[in-house]
Amino acid sequence: MTDPWVALEPGADPAEHARMLRRAHETFTEVGTVPRPVRSVVAESWRRSARAGVGPDGTADVELMDGDLGSYRAEHPLARVMPLFRELMGTFAADGEHLLAVCDAHGRLLWVEGHPTTRRDAGRMNFVPGARWAESAVGTNAPGTAVAVDRPVQVFAAEHFIRRVQPWTCAAAPVHDPRTGRVLGAVDITGGNGLAHPHSLGFVQAVARAAESQLALLVPELPAVDAPELTALGRDEAHLLLGGRRIRLSRRHSEILVLLARHPEGLTGDELLCALYEDESVTPVTLRAELARLRRVLGPGLLESRPYRLTVPVESDVDVVERRLETGAVTAAATGYAGPLLPGSQAPAVVRLRRRIADGLRTALIARRDPDLLADWAHAPWGEDDLDVWRALAAVRPTAPVRARLAALESELRVPAGRRGRAATWLQRPRS
Question: CB within 8 A of 223, min separation 6: which ones?
Fold first, then answer.
């Protein structure tokens, strides 16, 4: 395969390839092995789907309906580029008997538009607005897998994990916030086997890039007074918005800025050493060299010493989530939480802060008992093994996939149902 993200090699017979995939899918569901002809991106997705407790005969759950769906769509950033999506893809979808679909960052479908007959057929498998098509909920599919791997992806026929979706072919590309780089959702084209062509993947990718350009134009201009913004949740390398520039920081510089932003009074060299390094043999010279490099990255006047401090307040997404939690705005806090703080960091102070934020938010979610908020956490990478949250979700939304995932977790952990579960290992063990 010249491009692993494209479903069919040029000249390949779609019918024969679909038969091969059905045999491979049966092999995987029966014995857990993936035959070699299956693309690596699909094989990895099948394994993730199985670990999430998705069954091949499952179906998508509709989680948002009527007024809830309308309110959520109206507030979503991608609502601002729906006219662009319709302009670029609407005629193509209608004339080709395809569907234009747009999902959020959690794989929840927000809009499904296109040919009426195709929409009616897709509705039989709950490919409808408000349904959760995250990979962790319904297995391999283009919109769900695109947001899971943050790549444009094409899924053909029996590459879909759930059998009732296997007559379909789809291609989707993630759409990012132009300021922060976060995934906002994905744009998808769904239809028959005719979409199993490299052009369909290139098409949705181009539409996604056009949407990002449009969003960039819609972002209000920065105020004249610099107000640095630090984005560190859900990413190993933080982004700093400074004077109209977006700076991608190294891991160590990300840790330093997170800590200094939380201590406007400043930190001494010894305090920073203890906060950043587990190894007590690290010398002050190493720290001073790192800070000198950071000062060059930031430019003059922002980082001072004795003690080390930032000369202007830096607003971070960590602060935003904490403030919202303190005021009881749980939904807003969950919306602002893009993932664990600098998940690859092993700096002692960052690890403590990461756990404090995550524990505070998940505790609030469990207490709130909102099924949508719990589902968002449970289906995120950091929540897929969070037993407490899955139990809370099963109590308020006891669907078959939720009960199956909970049973699998409890069996895996071998703990009685009444005992306290473990938090997600993604939160507890920093990645290397």
Answer: none
